[in-house]
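haha ok so turns out i had the wrong file open the whole time. this is the CORRECT one, sorry everyone. sequence first:
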Amino acid sequence: MSSTLATPAAVQAHRDPNVRRWLTAYTCSMLGDSVYYLALSWAAVRAGTAAQAGLVMSASALPRAVLMLGGGVIADRLGPRRVVIGSDALRCAAVLAVAALLYLTSPGLWPLALLALVFGTVDAVFVPAVGALPARVTGKDQLARVQGMRGLAIRFASVVGAPLGGLGVAVGGASAAFALAGALIAVSVPLLISVRIRELPGDRADGPRATARADLAAGLRYIRGHRVLAPLMLAIA
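then structure:
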């Protein structure tokens, strides 16, 4: 595992090699996501009816929506860097397994539904963990710039990912598109391992910690009583 940053970076974020490694890893992961969702929808429509394809896509969206708050508790307890690396590795393995299965046979909808369920569940942990990383790869003075770079990466992935997935489908079908998605996510793993992070106040809690259930309940109470977060969470839901 890589070392931990003791102090905030002294250079500007876009010139910091550590931030560049993180940004490249994040961009590759987001590109893989975009290609994956296009491949999943295409394969589901080809393997079943439109209603069945909708159920497959729901199997990916529902766990992410329902489990996201719990995923934030897991990321807080295990550490966001560790959770992001593990999540990307698991998502990569699942996508490549389905790509190989589709290449070798025509199994129908069940592997797609299982992949959607696994991917959505892992995403519920990945999303809050990856959102906690920018503050740990740079100092406070560069955090706004890093968040801006992250926003650009998200938009780049949404613009480029769909045509890239379509190209994969056109060249080799759904199996090729899934393989491309898995390869893009795989690139992020060694880059994330090489990223150095710094600890924030509270990362090492002194004394006994509350249980995961108590942390989740405290988070829900905080959101419920917040004048901005409460309506925002409802709108997102």
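The beta strands are 4-5, 197-198.
again sry for the mixup
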